[in-house]
Amino acid sequence: MSEKTEAEAGAKATAEALDKVVAEAAEGEVDTAEAAAVAEVAALAAETSTTKSVAAARLASVTANETLRAVNAKILSLGLKFKGVYSELVEYVLGDIVTFEGGSFELQVATAEEEPPEKGKSNAQWIFR
Questions:
Q1: Minimal CA–CA distance to 12: which of 47, 51, 41?
Q2: Is 118 exposed, middle or buried (0-12, 13-18, 19+ CB in 10 A)?
Q3: Is the pLDDT higher at 99 or at 15?
Q4: Rg (CA), the chain
Q5: pLDDT score of 12
Q6: Which domains can be identified in the chain, with CATH numbers?
Q7: Rounded to the nearest 5 degrees, what angle is found at the Cα of 62, between the Cα atoms of 5 and 41?
């Protein structure tokens, strides 16, 4: 496969993944971990593109920004606050979202007294998103 064809295929796959995340965000089914991962791939594609795929890279970058805006708007509309990577040193409150061991979790109680469970699972305090 030529470099141009490979770049175009990668850009198309990235655009399809971004379209899926935007559609899910519009329906209220926001998976912040997936959205962040797809946006990161789009940004990486934009950074590593060749001259032949600059247009595709720009499209991926613009679409990634639109995806992040849509996800952020949904999070804000729900009153949720993304706090980044979980840390025992931070005091979390109801509605805070953290990433932990590859997953995204939302706090469902007034304050957290334990760390989030493993990816894909929820507990009495944290819901896997």
A1: 41
A2: exposed
A3: 99
A4: 17
A5: 72
A6: 3-77 (no CATH), 81-128 (2.10.10)
A7: 60
Q: pLDDT per residue over 72-103, tens digit each?
A: 666 666 667 889 999 999 999 988 999 999 99
Residue showing tokens 């708007």: 73
Confidence of residue 59 (pLDDT cuts 50, 70, 90): low
Q: Would the pTM count as exceeding 0.70?
A: no
Looking only at the bridges linking them, the beta strands covering 81-85 and 103-107 are unpaired
Sorting pLDDT into bands at 50, 70 and 90, what band is 16? confident
Q: Is 116 exposed, middle or buried (0-12, 13-18, 19+ CB in 10 A)?
A: buried
| Distance from C-alpha of 35 to C-alpha of 72, rounded to nearest angstrom | 10
> Is 63 exposed, middle or buried, given 0-12, 13-18 or 19+ CB atoms closer than 10 A?
buried
Tokens 């655009």 belong to 15
